[in-house]
Amino acid sequence: MNLLKRKEEKKTEKEKVEERREEVLAAGRKFKYPLQWTRYRVVINTILIAFVVLAIIIVGGWLAFYRIGMTDELLFNVSKVLPLPVANVDGNDVRFSDYLMFYRSSMTSIERQSGSQFDDGSFETLRDEYKRSALTEAEKYTYAIKLAKELDITVSEEEIASEFERHLKIGGIDRSEEGFIKIINDNFGLDKSEYERMLYLTLIKAKVEIEIDENANKIASKVESLLAASDNNYQAVAEQLGNEIIYEETGGLVDSKNIDGGRASEAMRLEPGQSSGKFISMNGDGYYFVKLIKKTDSEVNFVSIKVPFTEFSRQFMALEADGKITEYIEIATQEQ
Predict the structure, then answer these.
(1) Which of 203, 240, 219, 202 is nearest to 288 (CA)?
(2) In a 10 Å sphere around its CB, with 0-12 CB exposed, 13-18 middle and 19+ buried, how is residue 305 labelled?
(3) pLDDT for 272-331, tens place per residue?
(4) Structure pTM?
(5) Which are the contacts of 321, defined by CB distance < 8 A and separation ≥ 6?
(6) What residues form DSSP beta bridges with 289?
(7) What is the 3-state secondary structure (H, E, C) of 213-276?
C-alpha cells in the first residue's frame, strides 16, 4: 500500500489531468456509441422505406400505363415529363404522350358532344376503337420523324407559329388566340403546347410525304396542266384522270368552317369561278385543288380534286408486314 501511495505521489499534475480526462471520455463513450448505432439504423431504415415507396410507384405506374391502360389526365401529364415508350417503330420509340394526346383529343370530343348517346357497352367499344386509331396514328408520326431525320427535313418554331396563326383564321373568322385555345380545350381537351405538338407532327409528316411521294407529285403536276388547258374544268379533268385522283362536289352551300382538310376555308378566299391552285390538306394526307362555285358571308359551294399521298402508307404497311412495329400495350379488339 505504501508503495502504491508513493507511486501516486510521484505523478505530475499533467499526468493526473490526462488520467482524469481519459476517465471522463471512457464514461462518455458508453452513451456515444449506442447513439451512433441508433442514427445508423434510422438512416438505413429511411433508405429502405424510400426504396419500397419507389418500387411501389414504379410498379403502380407500370401497371397503370402498360397493363390497366389508364388514360386519365394525371398519367397524361406524367407521360409528358417522362419519355415513356408505348411502342417502337423500326427502332424508334413512340411517345406515350403522343398516343394519349391523340386518344384524349378524340374521346374528349365524343364525350362532350355525344357521349350520352352511347350505352356502357357501346361506349367501351368506341374507346377501344379510338385507342387503336390513336396508337396507329402515333406510330405513323414516329415513322415520319424517323424519315425526316434521314432526309434532313425539319420544322421550325416559326413554321409552327405561322400554321397556328392560319388556324386562328379558319373559316374567314379572325379569332383571338385566347378564344381559339378555349375552343380547342372545350372540344378536344388540348392546351396550346399540345395543339402545337399536333401542328408539328402534321407539318413534319406532310413534308416527308411531299419528299418521298414522287407519284403524287407527278399527278399533281398533271392536274395543274390539265386545269390550265381546260379553263379550270374540274369535272373534265376528273374524268380524264379517273382513279388517280378523288373528285368531289359539295352539291350546294356548306358551312365555311367545315372540317374538310381546309377546302371550305380555301374556297372562302376565292371568287366564283376562281381556282385555288395546289395546296396541302390540313392533315397532310394529300394535295387539294378547289374551285369556288358560289359563296355567301358564311357558306360556300365548291368542287375539289384531291391527289392523295400513298407512298408513306405503303412504306408503313411494309413495316407492319415485316414485324418492325412492336407495341407495349394491348388494346382489346372486337370480334367480328
Answers:
(1) 219
(2) buried
(3) 999 999 999 888 889 999 999 999 988 999 999 999 999 999 999 999 999 999 999 888
(4) 0.76
(5) none
(6) 305
(7) CHHHHHHHHHHHHHHHHCCCCHHHHHHHHHHHCEEEECCCCEECCCCCCCHHHHHHCCCCCCEC
